[in-house]
Amino acid sequence: MHRILITGAAGAIGNVLREGLRGRYPVVRVTDRAALGPAQKGEEVVEGLDLADLAGLEAAMKDVDAVVHLAGTPVEQPWEPILANNIIGLHNTYEAARRQGVKRIVFASSNHTIGFHPRGRHIDETVPPRPDGRYGVSKVFGEAMGRLYADKHGMEIINLRIGSFQPKPKNVRMLNTWLSHRDCVHLVDVCLRAAGIHFEIIYGVSANSRNKWHDSLAARIGYRPQDNAEEYAAEILVAMQPEDEPLTERLFHGGEYCAMEFDGDLAKIG
């Protein structure tokens, strides 16, 4: 890969990847609607780019080998911003990449695509989607769009079902789901370099002792996470025990997203 593009580079993950991937590739191009500041050595900066602007996205992808697509609404929101950014904007991103001959997309999917699977269950990349909100639905859509562009247009797609991206885990659930900054940079780097990719799903999670997410790709492409949420377990469990989590949160992988607006029947969710 000579030139990679990071969309949504002003966001939390984008900032970490912008810093962490700089110097690993000859050119790192970064885009966002928000201000990005001056270009650093080996960088190209495209500010003010909206996902609704298909022509602008095409221009941003000129001579790009791979895209790390982070841009979009990053949390649960009303339907309108989800539709604009994570549905229409996602389509525009894939189509602009296809038109410009981009070979690979690493898509920031989410663990909220499988949020309503019971938390006690170990799951892999083959389980059916069980989104826990509108945000999760939009990420299921993003994975389906990637499947279409892989099969129909021969693009190489890796979907990262990102866990809890934080400097350190903050609660009981994150002892399972934490993704450290260091491991995130390493994971995206190996996804960009991996050979033999068609369409893949990988869980973005550190080497947590309590991890219940597993996939066949991580080890094959050389992902070797260094951080383990268990190092923070004693500190977390002093303040909060597992039974202290609200019932609707602690039953499912999606945690608090499952509890948002919930008025269903827990007994029917198996």
From TrEMBL:
Tell me which residues make up the NAD-dependent epimerase/dehydratase domain.
Answer: 4-163
Which residue ranges traverse the bilayer?
none
Question: Keywords assigned by UniProt?
Answer: NAD, Oxidoreductase
- A Pfam family found in this protein is Epimerase
GO MF annotation list: oxidoreductase activity
Q: Does the keyword NAD apply?
A: yes
Give the family this protein belongs to, as stated in its UniProt record.
Belongs to the NAD(P)-dependent epimerase/dehydratase family.
- Name of the protein in question: NAD-dependent epimerase/dehydratase
Species, as recorded? Oceanibaculum indicum P24
